[in-house]
Amino acid sequence: MRPSGRDLSELRPVSIETDVTKHAEGSCMIRMGDTHVLCTATLEARVPPFVKGSGLGWVTAEYGMLPRATNTRMRREAAAGKQGGRTVEIQRLIGRSLRAGVDRVALGERQITIDCDVIQADGGTRCASITGGWVALRLAVNKLMKAGDVISDPLIDPVAAVSCGIYAGQTVLDLDYPEDSEAGVDGNFILTGSGRLIEVQMSAEGSTFNRDQMNQLMDLAEKGVSELVALQKAACA
């Protein structure tokens, strides 16, 4: 029934390759099907002005897509002179999602910036960015801990994200682009490793949905995130 031939509750093939760049304190390439995102983490001994002097750390994110990440070339946002609204919305989502799994007191007054660059897009780029972004964050924090720069682990829970939706009348996990473009309902679910909700973005894209369907989507999301968290932990081991 699905264009890819996957089961309704099946993720796309997922791989997470770590330490893919030389200079970043943490890095990975996450591949969820044909969506590929390079995630890097940068440690800085500074925080934004609104955090300075609080003793709290900060985690933020930037997101972008390469011009040929999609079927047709997109103009670089730098060439346009500003970021588009979608880009701003996604990078804010990544930042606040990752912060939900961080003890900012334990992190101390320092900033970690997660850069998520979409090399190839086939649906679910924001979810892949959050999932891969946490891996890059974990690796960077590991270096802080190894150096003795933090007393206790500031990462209190893994954070991962997956899309779910209603396609051809069926609730499905991890939409690729052919499904995403035709789904009657589309949603992004961000959860912690312990199953706590961080954010749910749900919208009807041509058809409405009821409470039972919402519960089915939530069940799929929990299953998908638990599988992604296991892959995150294995990648960072």
UniProtKB/TrEMBL annotation:
Q: Which family does it belong to?
A: Belongs to the RNase PH family.
Q: Does the keyword GTP-binding apply?
A: no
Q: How does it assemble?
A: Homohexameric ring arranged as a trimer of dimers.
Q: What does this protein do?
A: Phosphorolytic 3'-5' exoribonuclease that plays an important role in tRNA 3'-end maturation. Removes nucleotide residues following the 3'-CCA terminus of tRNAs; can also add nucleotides to the ends of RNA molecules by using nucleoside diphosphates as substrates, but this may not be physiologically important. Probably plays a role in initiation of 16S rRNA degradation (leading to ribosome degradation) during starvation.
One of this protein's GO BP terms? rRNA catabolic process
What is this enzyme's EC? 2.7.7.56
PANTHER family from the UniProt entry: EXOSOME COMPLEX COMPONENT, EXOSOME COMPLEX COMPONENT RRP41
Top EC category: transferase
User: Binding of phosphate: at which residues?
Assistant: R86, G124, T125, R126
Q: Which domain of life is it from?
A: Bacteria
Gene name, Swiss-Prot/TrEMBL: rph
Q: Which keywords has UniProt assigned to this entry?
A: Nucleotidyltransferase, RNA-binding, rRNA processing, Transferase, tRNA processing, tRNA-binding
Q: What is the name of this protein?
A: Ribonuclease PH
Reactions mediated catalytically: tRNA(n+1) + phosphate = tRNA(n) + a ribonucleoside 5'-diphosphate
Residue ranges of coiled coil: none
Q: Which InterPro entries match?
A: ExoRNase_PH_dom1, ExoRNase_PH_dom2, ExoRNase_PH_dom2_sf, PNPase/RNase_PH_dom_sf, Ribosomal_Su5_D2-typ_SF, RNase_PH, RNase_PH_bac-type, RNase_PH_CS
Q: Where is the Exoribonuclease phosphorolytic domain?
A: 10-140, 157-224
